[in-house]
Specification:
The structure holds three protein chains of three kinds. Chain B is mainly alpha-helical. Helices cover 76% and strands 0% of the residues of chain B. Chain C is 41% helix and 17% strand. Chain C is built from 14 helices and ten strands. Classes of the chains: A mainly alpha, B mainly alpha, C alpha/beta.
Chain lengths: 305, 280, 343
């Protein structure tokens, strides 16, 4: 049972009789305006597509079929595995993984550094870290684009310094998208790791060093295993949004880096007009995310004995 | 041999932390610098000037952006308020409601908007609204925003509530206070910082939202992010940079505000706990 | 309670916004296609308050209307083939005889259009061409061939932006191969698909609203683009030349249409009359740098427009063709090709 600072209980039944009334508003709002729409989308993914957008209420597996099988341009070739869409999902997973790894490499040392500062400095570092995040994501993505484009300041500085001759082709590449994702979600990695480090007892490290353990061994064998939940939380908070991201691929990626978010968006707003297919792709994305989250929840509850 | 190093110090971590900040700030700083660029071109420097800031407020497009900013503000205020009220009720129900069947399902439902990827939420909401012929407009945006603000408000509020001992309410109830009075006079003041955190968080999330808003907004309705997106797609003009700088300054203000309030909450909590220790 | 006051004042403020009644017009338009000053002029002349949303391709206009936006807008500005498609989908309202007092201002050659017989739903807005422009600093060779887009020389590989517009890309590709548009022939369709797939490896990006910016900033050296947009890019400093390929290029006419279930139908017709005034049509033309379809504009036009290379096809250029509307089965193949292209 959770305890408060003075040692008393904090989860109790004081409001138990009215709990239904207290919970009902959130249940109704989220249930009606999110759970129900998602269910509707599940249904749509099994319907027939109407020419030029919309659905016809006839059940079919066509949407999922289109996803998995390639029946040729005219729809009547013998089915082969449709790699196009599977590769979009794989690419999105790879991009999200790349962004997560980048965030981890930079975020972990940063979080460690901040957690080991004096109290007052800690707050300042944390504030410094979160302020950019509170600027609109769109603006941050766009300013990243502005920075790395061929004629942008980054290339200009590098050329002036004589480090390179021709501009680095950064924009419209996979790397640009990963940079964009990394830039969008970095604080989500740093903050959970920081929170976990705050609760870490450094006397463990000191004890280990008393026993002549080298620095990096302490880090990898003692510290990291203990704060693993924080690291995993950070990874999930970066990975999941990156999977379905839309802005970074759209603004930084160009033609070659179509990701799941763009694929889905295109079905409803763009030229493709295939609603059931868009719904099917959304359901697949949602399932992937749910699997990751359920796995995480299970791992969490196992740890808390 | 005694240990010769500080376990809290690792070589290179300081450098990486600075690199981290550098990466976070440099695009924004570049934008800020160029917002003072007198020349129309992005790449050539034409001298310092405030004309783009002037144009943000008085130029040709200013009407559109002002209206969009106003819409964003109103929607964020209303969504954050309603979400905070609903989330406060929900946290009390979850944390002070004892054990009940379906508690974890309830928890999942409340957090559902955070778990579903934004693009999926956007599309599902659009489909749903068109299926029930709900006319798209400001109201559709508001409804969608309330939905995803609830979990963001819920998390800080419930975290705060979890740190408050039940003995206070039980004491109040022993003194014949009904539940409403208990909430109003005992719980709410102590939960204060959590509620305000939740409100601020929802407010920012709503102000910031682009994907969902873009899908469910009605004709002619723009929020600030959608208006900026439309303008930015056609090229990054200097007046957008001026607007971004202003927004950056605004967020610095909001973050400082939330820090100050958070600190006050901590002081209040320490004061309360000190008082309790005396009783023991 | 603090919250109560906030809620009450927010509702109050919101209702002030809503209570801003008075005549309105809801316009769904291409981005960067009408000068703000003209809208302001309309508002001050008629007292009608105009709100405008934008789209960046004919296809996304259709998608939005299909996704539930029909009934929120009064007017839209689709291209020629899209007028036909929208009419087929039942999304257009009919303009009765005599409802438009300036109808006779329309140039006689555009009075009856193949995509809208008798002009029952639409009036001309602007007409122009779609081709591509090449940055002359990067490439000095012959640009008047669609090979630049579909089979580019080495210096241009990876530096090409293509419009995010299915109709026009398909048309241009068909011209390149020399096959008819909306062909039913399987071999021709397969050839079209493999052309697009192989060309795509040399493309940097797809984008319509960024088409001007990427040329100006130098992100790309070749950009598929509309002629007026290209001359605007040139004005903003891009050293580009607009191409008139030997194989031909796309021509189009954009039209203002009256949408079905328009909430402010009367005001919509007033706007249409307004656009048909030669002075106002000229204002649009001077801004967008295409051509108007209205009589009497010439004396209001900026002289530079008449001599711009973007408005004067070279001798020996291929034919300009309108985008064709395909029948459903072919269109579905096209949609497949496009999704495979974009992903």
């Amino acid at each position: 049972m959770a305890t408060g600072v003075g040692g008393g209980r904090t989860i109790s039944s004081t409001f138990s009789p009215v709990k239904i009334w207290l919970l009902l508003p959130s249940w109704l709002i989220i249930g009606f305006f999110l759970a129900l729409p998602v269910l509707l989308m599940l249904v749509y993914s099994f319907l027939t597509k109407e020419f030029r957008g919309g659905v016809i209420w006839e059940p079919t597996l066509a949407a999922y079929d289109q996803f998995i099988f390639d029946r040729g341009l005219f729809g009547d070739d013998p089915p082969q595995i449709e790699w196009k869409y599977i590769s979009i999902f794989i690419r999105s997973i790879l991009q999200a993984t790349g962004a997560t790894i980048l965030c981890l490499l930079i975020g972990f040392p940063t979080a460690f550094f901040i957690a080991t500062r004096v109290d007052n400095n800690k707050i300042i570092w944390l504030l410094l870290l979160t302020v950019p995040y509170w600027v609109n994501l769109l603006i941050r993505t766009v300013s990243m684009k502005f920075l790395i484009r061929d004629s942008g300041p980054l290339n200009e500085i590098l050329i002036t310094l004589g480090l390179i001759d021709t501009p680095l082709k950064l924009i419209n590449t996979n790397l640009a998208v990963q940079l964009g994702l990394f830039y969008s979600y970095l604080p989500f990695m740093v903050l959970p790791i920081y929170a976990a480090l705050e609760r870490y007892n450094f006397t463990f490290s000191e004890a280990a060093s008393d026993l002549y353990a080298p620095k990096w061994t302490i880090l990898f064998q003692i510290l990291i295993p203990i704060i693993k939940p924080g690291i995993i939380a950070g990874c999930i908070l970066v990975f999941v949004p990156s999977l379905g991201a839309f802005l970074a691929p759209d603004l930084l990626g160009g033609a070659k880096t179509f990701m799941i978010g763009s694929l889905i968006e295109d079905q409803f707003k763009g030229n493709a007009g295939n609603w059931p297919f868009g719904a099917a792709a959304s359901m697949i994305l949602l399932s992937m995310v749910m699997i990751v989250l359920i796995y995480y929840a299970r791992a969490q509850s196992k740890e808390q004995i | 041999m005694r240990k010769a190093f500080n376990v809290k110090h690792y070589n290179g971590f300081f450098f990486i932390a600075c690199l981290c900040l550098f990466i976070l700030y440099s695009p924004l700083l570049i934008v800020m610098i160029y917002s003072f660029n007198d020349s129309l071109s992005i790449t050539r420097w034409g001298g310092v000037s405030l004309r783009w800031y002037y144009e943000v407020f008085y130029g040709l497009e200013s009407e559109k952006f002002k209206l969009a900013a106003w819409n964003s503000l109103i929607i964020a205020l209303m969504a954050a308020t309603i979400a905070t009220i609903v989330a406060t009720a929900a946290s009390i129900g979850m944390i002070r409601g004892g054990q009940f069947r379906g508690k974890s399902a309830s928890f999942g439902l409340i957090l559902l908007p955070i778990m579903v990827p934004e693009i999926v939420t956007a599309v599902a909401t659009l489909i749903f609204f068109s299926a029930i012929s709900f006319k798209l407009g400001i109201l559709s945006i508001l409804v969608a925003h309330i939905v995803f603000c609830i979990p963001f408000a819920y998390l800080p509020i419930s975290a705060r509530l979890q740190g408050i001992e039940a003995s206070y309410e039980e004491a109040a109830q022993d003194l014949y206070a009904n539940r409403w009075k208990t909430f109003k006079h005992v719980l709410m003041p102590i939960m204060g910082p959590g509620i305000i955190s939740g409100f601020l968080l929802s407010f920012i999330i709503s102000l910031d939202d682009f994907i969902i808003t873009n899908f469910v907004k009605g004709a002619g309705v723009e929020t600030l992010p959608t208006a900026i997106f439309g303008a930015v797609k056609q090229g990054i003009k200097p007046n957008i940079m001026a607007l971004s700088t202003l927004l950056l300054l605004f967020s610095i203000f909001l973050v400082t505000l939330s820090y100050v309030i958070g600190k006050k909450g901590e002081d209040l909590k320490t004061k309360n706990n000190k008082g309790e220790k005396h009783e023991v | 309670m603090k919250f109560k006051t906030i809620v009450v004042s927010a509702i109050f403020a919101l209702s002030i916004n809503v209570a801003n009644a008075g005549e309105k017009l809801s316009l769904y338009h291409w981005f960067e296609y009408i000068p703000q000053e003209l809208l302001d002029k309309f508002e001050s002349e008629t007292g009608i308050d105009v709100t405008m949303d934008t789209y960046d391709s004919n296809e996304s206009l259709l998608a939005a209307l299909k996704a539930g936006k029909l009934g929120s807008y009064d007017l839209a500005v689709p291209g020629d083939y899209m007028v036909e498609i929208l009419a087929g989908e039942g999304m257009l309202d009919t303009i009765g005889d005599g409802e438009l007092k300036n109808k006779s201002n329309i140039e006689s050659q555009w009075l009856d259009a193949s995509f809208d017989r008798g002009r029952k739903h639409s009036i001309p807005y602007q007409w122009g061409s779609t081709s591509f422009s090449v940055n002359r600093d990067v490439y000095k060779g012959n640009i008047n061939t669609t090979d630049i887009i579909f089979n580019p020389p080495d210096e241009l590989k990876g530096k090409i932006n293509v419009l995010d517009s299915q109709g026009e890309v398909m048309a241009l590709a068909s011209l390149h191969l020399g096959i008819p548009q909306c062909s039913n022939d399987r071999d021709q369709l397969k050839a079209l698909d493999s052309l697009l797939q192989s060309a795509k490896t040399h493309w940097a990006s797809f984008g319509s609203d960024i088409a001007k910016d990427v040329l100006v900033s130098g992100d790309v050296a070749v950009g598929m683009i509309w002629n007026g947009f290209s001359s605007k890019a040139r004005e903003e400093g891009a050293n580009i030349e607009y191409s008139y390929p030997d194989q031909g290029y796309v021509v189009w006419m954009d039209n203002v249409v009256l949408l079905k279930d328009a909430p402010n139908r009367k005001n919509a017709l007033i706007f249409m009359d307004f656009i048909l005034e030669p002075e106002n049509a000229a204002a649009v033309t001077n801004y967008a740098q295409y051509n108007a379809g209205v009589k009497g504009v010439t004396k209001f036009l900026e002289p530079a427009l008449a001599v711009m290379p973007e408005n004067n096809p070279r001798d020996g250029a291929g034919a300009g063709v309108f985008v064709a509307v395909c029948e459903q089965s072919t269109q579905e193949v096209y949609d497949q090709m496009w999704t495979r292209l974009r992903s």
